[in-house]
Amino acid sequence: xxxxxxxxxxxxxxxxxxxxxxxxxxxxxxxxxxxxxxxxxxxxxxxxxxxxxxxxxxxxxxxxxxxxxxxxxxxxxxxxxxxxxxxxxxxxxxxxxxxxxxxxxxxxxxxxxxxxxxxxxxxxxxxxxxxxxxxxxxxxxxxxxxxxxxxxxxxxxxxxxxxxxxxxxxxxxxxxxxxxxxxxxxxxxxxxxxxxxxxxxxxxxxxxxxxxxxxxxxxxxxxxxxxxxxxxxxxxxxxxxxxxxx
Length: 246
Known about the structure:
This protein is α/β, with parallel strands linked by helices. The chain is built from ten helices and eight strands. It has an eight-stranded mixed beta sheet, with helices on both faces. Strand 3, helix 3 (64-71) and strand 4 (74-78) form a beta-alpha-beta unit. The radius of gyration is 17 Å and the shape is globular.
């Protein structure tokens, strides 16, 4: 069951130049589970550029919901924790219903930089692709621990072996979709395996995609929220099971 709420808090002054028609037709989807310490700052940063921020409160047990209702443009609520994949799909479906022409997915833990949103939109606006995927390995990964780098590189190799799509960063939560792409890619994996599933859907649909250099900021908070090596194996298991029943 999903509950929705909307706020009308105005965005701060734009710091990056985007046509008003693009800003107004772009929706940023932020999946959030127990992200109270970081969420308010993340939302406020996004709204300096994009006014339409959709937070999906995925069954949080902290103050994530109240912060989202105060700061975000729209707040959707999963009454139970379903997982990031499900939260993203809920946000995408809502954005499409609201008439979004472009949809951005943006993590709630403060890792992403709002300045990268126009960079992701640019190749879509220029007609080069329908999907832009952020890559920390083409861009910058600040304070990325060696163990986390190895896990991420293993994910890249896994993606290339399993579905033949050559990416430099297979599990980056910062992505941009045209409306056409968002309508064609439906996420069925509720939890973290959705990142690999999205790559599968790109291959299946034949949609043009492009990797864009972005910056990822690792902090003690975001590292604590991130996936461990054990979690990575669990993601692989869920992904492979999902492929068998797909």
